[in-house]
Amino acid sequence: MEKDRSINMMQEHPVIRCFNISKWYDNICALNNINLDINAGEFIFFTGPSGAGKSTLLKLLYLDERASQGEIVMNGMNIARIPRDRMPYVRRTLGVVFQDFKLIPTRTVYDNVALVLEAAGVKKNIIRQRVLKVLRITGIVRKINAFPPSLSGGEQQRVAFARAVVGEPSIIIADEPTGSLDYDSARVIFNLLLDYNRKGVTILVASHNLHLINETCKAVNGKNPTDGIIRERHLRIVNGVVTESG
Amino acid sequence: METIFYYTIRAFQDMISNRFMTLMTLMTISLCTIIMAASLLFYENGARLIRFWYGGIHIVIYVDSQASLADIESIKEKINKIGGINGISYVSKAEALEDIKASFPSSTRYLDDLRENPLPHAFVLAVSEKFDRDMLNSHNISTLPHVESIEYGESWIQGIEAILDLFRLSGAVIGTLFFIAVIFVTGNAVSISLYVRREEFVIMRLVGATERFMTLPFYIISVIQGVLGALLGIGILGFLYSIMISLMEQGETGSPLPDFSIFAIELEFLSLHALALIPLTAALLCWIGCFFALGHFLKKN
Questions:
Q1: CATH of domain B58-152
Q2: In A, which residues are within 8 Å of B299 by CB distance?
Q3: Which of A30, A53, A151, B42 is the most buried (most CB within 10 A)?
Q4: Which residue in the set A62, A88, A102 is minimally distant from B203, CB to CB?
Q5: Do A140 and A197 contact (CB within 8 A), yes or no?
């Protein structure tokens, strides 16, 4: 009952709304007329075969690509038509985790994570506090002065996760975050995502890892909504079309 | 202030982490600076020599003996309006005669016998290198009432003006080449650095960095490289110059260098003005090179 009420409240407050979104690369249609509402606090999985359009959809959301057609409203702003110079300010409201980590190899773990706050013009002492906090949360603080190439894949992804959450985003987008990790490392990342979801952060994950998705779904559904988790949704994308699954 | 400090620190960190590229850029800028500064050194000393030569050039404007004092004053006023003149002295016909008597004491008797002083009044003008014959023409000095004739020392002036023109032309050519070379070198260095760090740019962009945040360190690096490269170039040139001077000072004891003392001026190193201007110009040129490289890169990415 409590859970249903939470879902209803959430459905009244979508943080992302996609209207007739399509994306073509030359003559190839990657996404076809997608309509989608994502509500605050949801934990969304995008699954589907390779080339189905999962990453493309996420790229449209974190503004790495522009939609060929349609509108995307995020936190009340149409980001599909946003001017280039406003993009950084929208990106700062998001945390993004990539399959290939996208860490700067010539910067230390601390500097990689601090980059987000430095780019936002946060004061140095505050940056230090926040970076240390997220590195502790992600369990990578002892590697603070290490350079990414010296870290394992799992450690690098934890650094990438720390970078994604250090700006305290309301939405985390993870594109195949466990694609290049072993099971244990992947589990750590999913647990971190779950933790942040419990704090009310909306999570969007594109993944192939059905085993971990099922585990996460169980974890989500097994908890009382008052713990913070509102709802998990599993969206399957095939040939650029989104369908709701299980 | 904290932001500028942050960007500068980042710029230095970037320079250190790309030290090979930084060193190559510095060396190339230094080389360009040495070539340009050596030409400037040549030009400055040449200009001093020309100024020295000009100091010996006089133009004489002869005024007929019917000219009244008022006429002479009027001519003097007109001459005063001409640019490029360092000094005017008026020599009356009586003074001119006295000068001749003083110069040729043995002829004084004959000169005393003259019933009338045949010499004209004259204005003697000391000119600077800014003087141009056209200035006299444009003020119509030769057509003024009572002006009999003008003696230019024409062959000297023309010769010196030709040298000066050659200096100016070579200065302009070398200066332009320096400008192009520095812009090209910096632009290339920044372009290579950008392509090497392309992924870094992509990451910064994805985490919400503005273009200003991403590009400002490149501008700072370019300016630092421009200043450091120019200072290094000036330092090397100064070192070579001091070796050359010490070799010249040993001239009497068999120096391989020619004896420059025949020019009657002491060679001098670059003026303070030039020493300040070279690093500033290099910094500006590097900034321009960086601006073009970044513009091109951001447009394509």
A1: 3.30.70.3040
A2: none
A3: A53
A4: A102
A5: no
Q: What is the pLDDT of residue B287?
A: 92
> Beta-carbon neighbour count of residue B287 at 10 Å?
17
Residues of A with Cβ-Cβ distance to B199 under 8 angstroms? 102, 104
- Is B139 within 8 Å of B78 (Cβ atoms)? yes
> pLDDT tens digits for B249-283?
776 555 565 666 655 667 888 889 889 999 999 99
**pLDDT tens-digit map of A56-73:** 999 999 999 999 999 999
Q: What are phi and psi of A218, to 5 degrees?
A: -65, -45
- In this complex, which of A62, A119, A163 lies closest to B213 when CB atoms are compared? A119
Answer for the pair A196, A206: CB distance below 8 angstroms, yes or no.
no
Q: What is the Cα–Cα distance from A209 to B242, expressed in whole angstroms?
A: 73
- Please, are residues B295 and B187 in contact by the beta-carbon 8 Å criterion? no
Q: Is the ipTM of this complex over 0.90?
A: no
Q: What angle do CA B22, B24, B30 make, to 5 degrees?
A: 100
What pTM, to 2 d.p., does this model score?
Answer: 0.68
Nearest in space to A11 (alpha carbons), one of A33, A42, A35: A42
d(CA A229, CA B256): 89
| Cβ neighbours, 10 Å, residue B38 | 16
Q: Is B208's CB within 8 Å of A116's CB?
A: yes
Q: Which chain B residue has the Cα nearest residue A65? A: B206
DSSP string for residues in chain A:
-HHHHHHHHHHTSEEEEEEEEEEEETTEEEEEEEEEEEETTEEEEEE-STTSSHHHHHHHHTTSS--SEEEEEETTEEGGG--GGGHHHHHTTEEEEETT----TTS-HHHHHHHHHHHTT--HHHHHHHHHHHHHHTT-GGGTT--GGGS-HHHHHHHHHHHHHTT--SEEEEESTTTTS-HHHHHHHHHHHHHHHHTT-EEEEE-S-HHHHHHHHHHHHHS-GGGS--EEEEEEEETTEEEEE-
Per the structure block, which two tokens stand in for B140? Answer: 């119509």
pLDDT tens-digit map of B64-112:
888 888 888 888 888 888 877 888 888 888 888 888 878 777 767 777 7
CB B119 within 8 A of CB B93: yes
Q: Which residues of A touch B206 (CB under 8 A)?
A: 62, 64, 91, 96, 102
* Closest residue, chain A, to B201 (C-alpha): A104
Domain ranges of chain B: 2-53+159-300, 58-152
A167 interaction partners in chain B (CB closer than 8 Å): 207-208
